[in-house]
Known about the structure:
globular; 3-stranded antiparallel beta sheet; two-stranded antiparallel ribbon; 32% helix; alpha+beta
Amino acid sequence: xxxxxxxxxxxxxxxxxRETMRAKGYYYxxxxxxxxxxxxxxxxxKPNIEFLQAKTDLSEAIQTLNTARIAAGQSVIELLRxxxxxxxxxxxxxxxx
Length: 97
């Protein structure tokens, strides 16, 4: 199934987490009907994945970021909450980058 993952993290680290998730094959936009749809900063999605794997991927992404942050003497990122949802059917407003 296609899974949409919505998350809140501490340290205002949405861009860092999103880019780390992107490296794991997640997207924060998609093309449909000749239009580009852009998701809010705390949402990613991935095709052909199960809910449990999405949760694991998010936890691993934050752990990876925190390893580097601890080594640099920075505060850690905490996962405050998340929701994983099936991505279909969907409806959206395009949004702007």
